[in-house]
Amino acid sequence: MPILEPIAYDIRRSGRSGAGMDSAGSGLELRENPRTPSPGAEVGGEVDEALSMFWYRNLLRAGTDSPEVDPDWGIHVNADALVEWAAGIATAMERDGVANASTLSLDLAFIFGFDHCFFHHCVDAQISLHMMRLHASGQPMPDLRSDQHKRCEKLHDVRHQPQWWFAIEESLANAHVARDPTRLGGLREAFLRYGILPQPLDGSRGPWALWEQLAMDSDAFSAASYMLWLQHLTGEIDPLGILSEIEMDVEEGGIDAALNRMIDRILEASQPQPDGEDGGNEHDWIADQSLIPRLHAFGGFTEGLFRRLDVPIWFHGGNGPDLIRRYDPQRGEWPYGTIERLYSHFRSSEVNEEWDDPFSGDDDDFELSP
After folding, report:
1. Which residues contact 254 (CB under 8 A, 6 or more apart)?
2. What is the pLDDT of residues 28-41, one digit of tens each?
3. What DSSP designation does 69 have?
4. Hey, CA dihedral for 244, 250, 255, 257, is it positive or negative?
Protein backbone atom coordinates (compact mmCIF):
# COMPACT_ATOMS: atom_id res chain seq x y z
CA MET A 1 0.00 0.00 0.00
CA PRO A 2 1.52 3.37 -0.94
CA ILE A 3 2.43 5.75 1.88
CA LEU A 4 0.64 9.08 1.65
CA GLU A 5 2.72 12.08 2.59
CA PRO A 6 1.03 14.27 5.20
CA ILE A 7 -0.13 17.70 4.07
CA ALA A 8 1.05 20.39 6.44
CA TYR A 9 -1.22 23.27 7.44
CA ASP A 10 0.10 26.35 9.13
CA ILE A 11 -2.80 27.19 11.43
CA ARG A 12 -2.14 29.91 13.98
CA ARG A 13 -4.35 31.63 16.48
CA SER A 14 -4.65 35.37 16.32
CA GLY A 15 -3.90 37.48 19.35
CA ARG A 16 -7.49 38.72 19.53
CA SER A 17 -9.76 37.76 22.38
CA GLY A 18 -12.41 36.20 20.15
CA ALA A 19 -12.16 33.25 17.77
CA GLY A 20 -9.23 33.78 15.45
CA MET A 21 -7.40 31.63 12.95
CA ASP A 22 -5.11 32.53 10.10
CA SER A 23 -4.19 29.62 7.88
CA ALA A 24 -1.39 30.53 5.50
CA GLY A 25 -1.71 27.23 3.70
CA SER A 26 -5.41 27.56 2.97
CA GLY A 27 -5.97 31.29 2.70
CA LEU A 28 -8.52 31.10 5.50
CA GLU A 29 -8.84 33.87 8.02
CA LEU A 30 -11.27 33.93 10.91
CA ARG A 31 -11.97 37.20 12.62
CA GLU A 32 -13.47 38.07 15.95
CA ASN A 33 -17.20 37.45 16.12
CA PRO A 34 -19.37 40.44 17.11
CA ARG A 35 -21.76 37.97 18.85
CA THR A 36 -24.83 39.46 17.17
CA PRO A 37 -26.16 38.07 13.86
CA SER A 38 -26.45 40.14 10.74
CA PRO A 39 -29.91 41.56 9.91
CA GLY A 40 -32.15 38.98 8.28
CA ALA A 41 -30.01 36.07 9.46
CA GLU A 42 -31.78 32.73 9.39
CA VAL A 43 -33.23 31.59 12.74
CA GLY A 44 -33.34 27.81 12.90
CA GLY A 45 -33.05 25.11 15.52
CA GLU A 46 -32.69 21.36 15.91
CA VAL A 47 -35.66 19.00 15.72
CA ASP A 48 -35.39 17.78 19.31
CA GLU A 49 -37.45 19.89 21.71
CA ALA A 50 -34.60 20.45 24.15
CA LEU A 51 -32.38 21.76 21.36
CA SER A 52 -34.92 23.59 19.20
CA MET A 53 -33.32 26.89 20.18
CA PHE A 54 -29.78 25.82 19.19
CA TRP A 55 -28.08 25.11 15.89
CA TYR A 56 -24.53 24.93 14.59
CA ARG A 57 -23.43 26.61 11.35
CA ASN A 58 -20.51 25.02 9.53
CA LEU A 59 -17.07 26.59 9.30
CA LEU A 60 -16.78 26.47 5.49
CA ARG A 61 -19.18 27.86 2.92
CA ALA A 62 -20.90 25.26 0.77
CA GLY A 63 -20.66 25.23 -3.02
CA THR A 64 -17.20 26.76 -3.36
CA ASP A 65 -14.24 25.44 -5.34
CA SER A 66 -11.77 26.43 -2.60
CA PRO A 67 -12.07 26.77 1.19
CA GLU A 68 -13.97 29.89 2.21
CA VAL A 69 -14.94 30.66 5.79
CA ASP A 70 -18.63 31.31 6.43
CA PRO A 71 -18.60 34.58 8.42
CA ASP A 72 -21.62 33.37 10.42
CA TRP A 73 -20.10 30.03 11.41
CA GLY A 74 -20.46 28.86 15.00
CA ILE A 75 -23.15 28.12 17.59
CA HIS A 76 -26.42 29.98 17.09
CA VAL A 77 -29.04 30.48 19.80
CA ASN A 78 -32.64 31.66 19.55
CA ALA A 79 -32.47 33.61 22.82
CA ASP A 80 -36.23 34.17 23.13
CA ALA A 81 -37.03 30.47 22.63
CA LEU A 82 -34.32 29.55 25.14
CA VAL A 83 -35.74 31.88 27.81
CA GLU A 84 -39.23 30.44 27.24
CA TRP A 85 -37.96 26.85 27.45
CA ALA A 86 -35.99 27.64 30.62
CA ALA A 87 -39.10 29.12 32.23
CA GLY A 88 -40.81 25.73 31.93
CA ILE A 89 -37.81 24.04 33.55
CA ALA A 90 -37.85 26.65 36.33
CA THR A 91 -41.45 25.74 37.16
CA ALA A 92 -40.46 22.09 37.56
CA MET A 93 -37.44 23.07 39.67
CA GLU A 94 -39.63 25.19 41.96
CA ARG A 95 -41.88 22.18 42.53
CA ASP A 96 -38.73 20.32 43.58
CA GLY A 97 -37.84 23.08 46.02
CA VAL A 98 -34.74 24.19 44.09
CA ALA A 99 -33.57 27.67 45.08
CA ASN A 100 -32.79 30.23 42.36
CA ALA A 101 -34.75 28.12 39.87
CA SER A 102 -34.99 30.81 37.20
CA THR A 103 -31.23 31.27 37.13
CA LEU A 104 -30.34 27.59 37.30
CA SER A 105 -32.85 26.53 34.66
CA LEU A 106 -31.39 28.94 32.12
CA ASP A 107 -27.84 27.85 32.90
CA LEU A 108 -28.73 24.14 32.75
CA ALA A 109 -30.49 24.47 29.39
CA PHE A 110 -27.80 26.68 27.89
CA ILE A 111 -24.78 24.61 28.95
CA PHE A 112 -26.39 21.48 27.53
CA GLY A 113 -27.19 23.07 24.18
CA PHE A 114 -23.80 24.75 24.00
CA ASP A 115 -21.81 21.57 24.58
CA HIS A 116 -24.09 19.53 22.29
CA CYS A 117 -23.35 22.04 19.53
CA PHE A 118 -19.66 22.04 20.38
CA PHE A 119 -19.59 18.37 19.38
CA HIS A 120 -21.03 19.40 16.02
CA HIS A 121 -18.05 21.74 15.77
CA CYS A 122 -15.69 18.83 16.51
CA VAL A 123 -17.23 16.87 13.62
CA ASP A 124 -17.28 19.90 11.35
CA ALA A 125 -13.64 20.68 12.12
CA GLN A 126 -12.43 17.18 11.24
CA ILE A 127 -14.50 16.96 8.05
CA SER A 128 -13.47 20.48 7.00
CA LEU A 129 -9.79 19.69 7.48
CA HIS A 130 -10.21 16.61 5.30
CA MET A 131 -11.89 18.72 2.61
CA MET A 132 -9.03 21.21 2.83
CA ARG A 133 -6.47 18.41 2.51
CA LEU A 134 -8.18 17.23 -0.66
CA HIS A 135 -8.09 20.76 -2.04
CA ALA A 136 -4.43 21.23 -1.10
CA SER A 137 -3.53 17.99 -2.89
CA GLY A 138 -5.08 19.26 -6.12
CA GLN A 139 -8.32 17.32 -5.93
CA PRO A 140 -11.80 18.82 -6.25
CA MET A 141 -13.13 19.87 -2.86
CA PRO A 142 -16.38 18.01 -2.14
CA ASP A 143 -19.20 19.46 -0.03
CA LEU A 144 -19.02 16.55 2.43
CA ARG A 145 -20.46 18.47 5.35
CA SER A 146 -23.22 20.17 3.40
CA ASP A 147 -24.22 16.96 1.61
CA GLN A 148 -24.45 15.08 4.92
CA HIS A 149 -26.59 17.87 6.37
CA LYS A 150 -29.03 17.59 3.46
CA ARG A 151 -29.31 13.82 3.93
CA CYS A 152 -30.05 14.25 7.63
CA GLU A 153 -32.55 17.02 6.92
CA LYS A 154 -34.53 14.55 4.80
CA LEU A 155 -34.48 12.07 7.68
CA HIS A 156 -35.67 14.76 10.10
CA ASP A 157 -38.46 15.84 7.75
CA VAL A 158 -39.84 12.31 7.35
CA ARG A 159 -38.91 10.91 10.79
CA HIS A 160 -39.59 7.45 9.45
CA GLN A 161 -38.26 4.85 11.83
CA PRO A 162 -35.79 3.18 11.82
CA GLN A 163 -34.13 5.23 9.05
CA TRP A 164 -34.43 8.38 11.18
CA TRP A 165 -32.13 6.87 13.78
CA PHE A 166 -29.28 6.96 11.26
CA ALA A 167 -28.84 10.67 11.99
CA ILE A 168 -26.20 9.32 14.33
CA GLU A 169 -24.37 12.63 14.83
CA GLU A 170 -27.21 13.75 17.12
CA SER A 171 -26.83 10.59 19.20
CA LEU A 172 -23.11 11.21 19.51
CA ALA A 173 -23.59 14.87 20.41
CA ASN A 174 -25.91 14.01 23.31
CA ALA A 175 -23.58 11.21 24.40
CA HIS A 176 -20.69 13.69 24.27
CA VAL A 177 -22.45 15.79 26.93
CA ALA A 178 -23.46 12.83 29.08
CA ARG A 179 -20.26 10.79 28.90
CA ASP A 180 -18.27 9.78 31.95
CA PRO A 181 -15.77 10.93 32.88
CA THR A 182 -16.63 14.51 31.99
CA ARG A 183 -17.57 17.47 34.10
CA LEU A 184 -20.97 17.80 32.44
CA GLY A 185 -21.47 14.04 32.63
CA GLY A 186 -21.91 14.50 36.36
CA LEU A 187 -25.00 16.61 35.69
CA ARG A 188 -26.59 13.86 33.62
CA GLU A 189 -29.35 13.15 36.16
CA ALA A 190 -30.35 16.83 36.25
CA PHE A 191 -30.47 16.93 32.45
CA LEU A 192 -32.71 13.84 32.53
CA ARG A 193 -34.94 15.02 35.37
CA TYR A 194 -35.88 18.21 33.57
CA GLY A 195 -36.34 16.70 30.12
CA ILE A 196 -33.27 18.25 28.51
CA LEU A 197 -31.64 14.89 27.91
CA PRO A 198 -34.16 12.35 26.53
CA GLN A 199 -34.94 9.26 28.51
CA PRO A 200 -32.83 6.48 26.98
CA LEU A 201 -34.50 4.84 24.00
CA ASP A 202 -37.43 7.28 23.89
CA GLY A 203 -38.54 6.57 20.33
CA SER A 204 -40.48 9.83 20.11
CA ARG A 205 -37.18 11.76 20.32
CA GLY A 206 -35.47 9.68 17.66
CA PRO A 207 -31.66 9.67 17.38
CA TRP A 208 -31.27 12.13 20.29
CA ALA A 209 -32.46 9.32 22.60
CA LEU A 210 -29.75 6.90 21.45
CA TRP A 211 -27.16 8.45 23.75
CA GLU A 212 -26.90 6.06 26.71
CA GLN A 213 -24.85 3.18 25.31
CA LEU A 214 -22.61 5.61 23.43
CA ALA A 215 -22.01 7.56 26.64
CA MET A 216 -21.24 4.49 28.73
CA ASP A 217 -19.31 2.37 26.22
CA SER A 218 -16.23 3.91 24.62
CA ASP A 219 -16.14 1.17 21.96
CA ALA A 220 -19.71 1.99 20.96
CA PHE A 221 -18.87 5.72 20.82
CA SER A 222 -15.89 4.94 18.57
CA ALA A 223 -17.94 2.64 16.32
CA ALA A 224 -20.64 5.28 15.85
CA SER A 225 -17.93 7.85 15.09
CA TYR A 226 -16.51 5.55 12.42
CA MET A 227 -19.94 5.22 10.89
CA LEU A 228 -20.39 8.99 10.91
CA TRP A 229 -17.09 9.37 9.03
CA LEU A 230 -18.21 6.78 6.50
CA GLN A 231 -21.56 8.53 6.05
CA HIS A 232 -19.67 11.66 5.00
CA LEU A 233 -17.09 9.87 2.85
CA THR A 234 -19.44 7.48 1.03
CA GLY A 235 -22.51 9.70 0.77
CA GLU A 236 -24.62 6.87 2.23
CA ILE A 237 -26.76 7.10 5.34
CA ASP A 238 -26.25 3.36 5.98
CA PRO A 239 -22.63 2.71 4.95
CA LEU A 240 -22.40 -0.39 7.16
CA GLY A 241 -25.44 -2.05 5.57
CA ILE A 242 -27.32 -2.71 8.81
CA LEU A 243 -30.73 -1.23 7.96
CA SER A 244 -32.22 -4.57 6.90
CA GLU A 245 -31.22 -6.11 10.25
CA ILE A 246 -32.80 -3.23 12.16
CA GLU A 247 -35.96 -3.47 10.07
CA MET A 248 -36.07 -7.17 10.98
CA ASP A 249 -35.73 -6.21 14.65
CA VAL A 250 -38.70 -3.84 14.25
CA GLU A 251 -40.79 -6.56 12.63
CA GLU A 252 -39.92 -9.19 15.21
CA GLY A 253 -39.78 -7.19 18.44
CA GLY A 254 -41.26 -3.77 17.76
CA ILE A 255 -39.84 -0.24 17.75
CA ASP A 256 -38.50 -0.35 21.32
CA ALA A 257 -36.57 -3.57 20.76
CA ALA A 258 -35.14 -2.32 17.48
CA LEU A 259 -34.13 1.00 19.00
CA ASN A 260 -32.42 -0.90 21.79
CA ARG A 261 -30.44 -2.90 19.24
CA MET A 262 -29.46 0.03 17.00
CA ILE A 263 -26.10 0.81 18.63
CA ASP A 264 -25.34 -2.89 19.11
CA ARG A 265 -25.76 -3.38 15.36
CA ILE A 266 -23.36 -0.54 14.62
CA LEU A 267 -20.84 -1.92 17.10
CA GLU A 268 -21.09 -5.42 15.65
CA ALA A 269 -20.84 -4.21 12.06
CA SER A 270 -17.77 -2.16 12.97
CA GLN A 271 -15.82 -5.23 14.05
CA PRO A 272 -13.68 -7.31 11.65
CA GLN A 273 -15.66 -10.30 10.41
CA PRO A 274 -14.28 -13.81 9.78
CA ASP A 275 -13.90 -14.73 6.13
CA GLY A 276 -17.10 -15.93 4.56
CA GLU A 277 -19.42 -14.49 7.21
CA ASP A 278 -21.94 -11.71 6.75
CA GLY A 279 -21.43 -8.30 8.27
CA GLY A 280 -18.35 -6.98 6.57
CA ASN A 281 -15.97 -7.16 3.64
CA GLU A 282 -12.23 -7.63 3.69
CA HIS A 283 -11.57 -4.21 2.20
CA ASP A 284 -13.57 -2.50 4.97
CA TRP A 285 -10.62 -2.82 7.33
CA ILE A 286 -6.95 -1.95 7.25
CA ALA A 287 -4.22 -3.05 9.65
CA ASP A 288 -2.56 -0.45 11.85
CA GLN A 289 1.13 -0.43 12.79
CA SER A 290 0.46 -3.16 15.35
CA LEU A 291 -1.34 -5.23 12.69
CA ILE A 292 -4.64 -4.68 14.49
CA PRO A 293 -7.49 -4.32 11.94
CA ARG A 294 -9.32 -1.00 12.05
CA LEU A 295 -12.44 0.10 10.24
CA HIS A 296 -11.48 2.10 7.17
CA ALA A 297 -12.46 5.56 8.38
CA PHE A 298 -10.73 8.53 9.95
CA GLY A 299 -11.36 7.74 13.61
CA GLY A 300 -13.25 9.67 16.25
CA PHE A 301 -14.16 13.25 17.05
CA THR A 302 -12.37 14.38 20.17
CA GLU A 303 -11.57 18.01 19.55
CA GLY A 304 -12.28 20.87 17.22
CA LEU A 305 -10.10 23.49 15.62
CA PHE A 306 -10.72 25.74 18.61
CA ARG A 307 -11.24 25.59 22.33
CA ARG A 308 -14.84 25.90 23.42
CA LEU A 309 -14.36 29.55 24.37
CA ASP A 310 -13.10 30.35 20.87
CA VAL A 311 -16.17 29.05 19.02
CA PRO A 312 -18.44 32.01 18.17
CA ILE A 313 -21.85 32.15 19.84
CA TRP A 314 -24.55 34.09 17.99
CA PHE A 315 -27.66 35.19 19.90
CA HIS A 316 -30.88 35.93 18.00
CA GLY A 317 -33.93 37.71 19.40
CA GLY A 318 -34.79 40.38 21.92
CA ASN A 319 -33.25 38.50 24.85
CA GLY A 320 -29.94 38.24 22.99
CA PRO A 321 -28.19 41.23 24.65
CA ASP A 322 -28.98 39.90 28.14
CA LEU A 323 -27.60 36.46 27.26
CA ILE A 324 -24.49 37.98 25.70
CA ARG A 325 -23.77 39.72 29.01
CA ARG A 326 -24.55 36.56 30.95
CA TYR A 327 -22.37 34.24 28.86
CA ASP A 328 -19.48 36.57 28.12
CA PRO A 329 -16.10 34.82 28.67
CA GLN A 330 -14.41 38.20 29.07
CA ARG A 331 -16.17 38.62 32.41
CA GLY A 332 -14.74 35.37 33.73
CA GLU A 333 -18.14 33.93 34.61
CA TRP A 334 -18.68 31.73 31.57
CA PRO A 335 -18.37 28.79 31.48
CA TYR A 336 -16.51 28.07 34.71
CA GLY A 337 -18.75 29.98 37.10
CA THR A 338 -21.82 28.56 35.40
CA ILE A 339 -20.65 24.97 35.83
CA GLU A 340 -19.60 25.49 39.45
CA ARG A 341 -22.97 27.09 40.26
CA LEU A 342 -24.84 24.15 38.76
CA TYR A 343 -22.72 21.64 40.63
CA SER A 344 -23.15 23.44 43.92
CA HIS A 345 -26.93 22.99 43.59
CA PHE A 346 -27.15 19.56 42.00
CA ARG A 347 -24.19 17.70 43.51
CA SER A 348 -23.98 16.49 47.10
CA SER A 349 -20.35 17.60 47.56
CA GLU A 350 -18.24 20.58 46.62
CA VAL A 351 -16.08 20.33 43.52
CA ASN A 352 -12.42 19.70 44.23
CA GLU A 353 -10.68 23.05 44.74
CA GLU A 354 -7.83 22.01 42.45
CA TRP A 355 -10.08 21.95 39.40
CA ASP A 356 -9.86 24.88 37.04
CA ASP A 357 -11.26 23.44 33.82
CA PRO A 358 -14.85 22.17 33.84
CA PHE A 359 -14.30 20.62 30.41
CA SER A 360 -11.26 18.51 31.22
CA GLY A 361 -11.29 14.76 30.69
CA ASP A 362 -11.49 13.78 34.35
CA ASP A 363 -14.25 13.86 36.89
CA ASP A 364 -14.73 13.30 40.60
CA ASP A 365 -17.03 10.66 42.03
CA PHE A 366 -20.00 12.59 43.34
CA GLU A 367 -23.66 11.72 43.08
CA LEU A 368 -26.48 14.08 42.32
CA SER A 369 -28.52 15.11 45.32
CA PRO A 370 -32.15 13.89 45.29
Report:
1. none
2. 666 666 667 766 66
3. B
4. negative
